[in-house]
Amino acid sequence: MVRGDDGSLFGESPHYRWWALAVVMLSLFLPVLDTTIVNVALPYMMGSLDTNQDEVRWVITAYSMAFAVSTLASAWTRTVFGIKNLYLGSILLFVLSSFFAGISPNLNVMIIFRILQAVGGGIMMPLGFTIITEAFPPAERPKAFGFFGIVVVLAPTIGPILGGWLVDNFNWRDVFFINVPFGILSFLFTVFVLKKDREHILVPFDYAGFISLGTALSFLLVGLTEGERWGWTAFFVYECWAVAAIAFWIYIMTAFSVRHPLIDLSIFRDLDFSLIMVANFFRAVGLFGRMFLLPLFVQTFNAFTATDAGLVLLPSSLMAGIAMPVLGSLSAKGSDTFKRVLLVSGFLMLAFSQFLFAFLTNVPKMSQIIIAQLVFGLSMGMLNALLSSIPQTLVEPRYIGLASSLQSNMLQIGGALGVAVLGNFLDHQQADYYARYQSDVTHHSYFYQRVVDFFTQSATHGNVPDIQARVGAMITGTAQSQSAISGYNETFIAAGLMALLGIPMILLMRRLSHRGPAAKQTVVHGGIE
Predict the structure, then answer these.
(1) pLDDT tens digit string along 64-92?
(2) Burial track 215-252 (b if 16+ CB lie within 10 A, e otherwise)
């Protein structure tokens, strides 16, 4: 086969759109995988890189910050390089920085290459959304995003499992090296499959907007990720949020004074687009909040190892992987009413899957965990395809690239906020329940005296030293265990209630489909026109 003038072996094929989808799924699997695969390697990095727990966390934090900020520039850089060249460059940057991160001799070098790695991945993510949107007609986009959603739910799940296996059997540096062969494969696949862009209209870059909004996003994410460790009332956390608020205010002020702002705020005049972005936010809270809570839960009460805790997430990912393509295909043929019912049902199922962990009084059985995970996976199957495709469908063609960038950022912010809020809520609930249980059981309480009497009688048949100390330790252990379970109960209830907040957003939307036949499209700043 010979590549055509558009640079693709399949550019003239009636199935080109599916080849383009395969390119995006293969290439974006790696940066999404890297959001979780590195976590299990952090303890091993501390010894090799001669650092401590507080400092090594910046390997994760720097990646999250750079990933979010780099998405902001993806729409403009597309007009400079073209979508194919930029996508190839992003893959190459990701692969090279993965290799150099793997051979990093110290923490500072590691963080530098993690930032470069995130820049590559951060630009790829919204470009991937755009490639799918432009390759598929509006009616087929839910089906396409149904398949793409497999990457979104499966890659973060596989990350801890694969990372744990690599660390246990090989070396922690292999969590970076594994990106290299698969990255090269995706690079070659992109070279031969993806079409070149048409001509672009190059506009000035909004440097003030990029710096101010990038600063706001970075400090917001740092405040959220570090708040749980430092405490939400810590001065450092307040500083982060103050800087984020000031930087965002500066961006709002400058966005109306430049001709081509980084984010054209007029896009939010469309109420339906604004509502679907908020719904995406609550989806991210539910998805990443659940992925944060459940492994902690089973490690605490079921005594699972880190790898086994990661395997617990697998049933939901497999269920979502099966449901998303099927439901995406059905919703592509359905009316707005059908899509609305599907989305509302998805948020209800998401809340129900959280509530299944909300009324436990003891350690859950494995069957309980799997059933709840299957319900959760089905809810993701209902939500992901439509929530990923609707934002690009609602906006004017020239805003498709911008909508993709905003959606990527919304997932980042929603995920970080969900983990931070639920983690903080869990800590407070456990401490509150522990204090309550301890105060209910005093030396003069009926329960305490019965337990002391039991051990006193038992002591006649054996030597039980210091009965009161033994009883106190037993009661303290019981109070800790029950307060932890009660804390998780309350936190899963909170997670379920947050999921329900997505339903009003869907019900308030006037339309869930494209306006009409796609207009002739010409590439401009932020998308196509």
Answers:
(1) 888 888 888 887 888 888 888 899 999 99
(2) bbbbbbbbbbbbbbeeebeeeebeebbebbeebbebbe
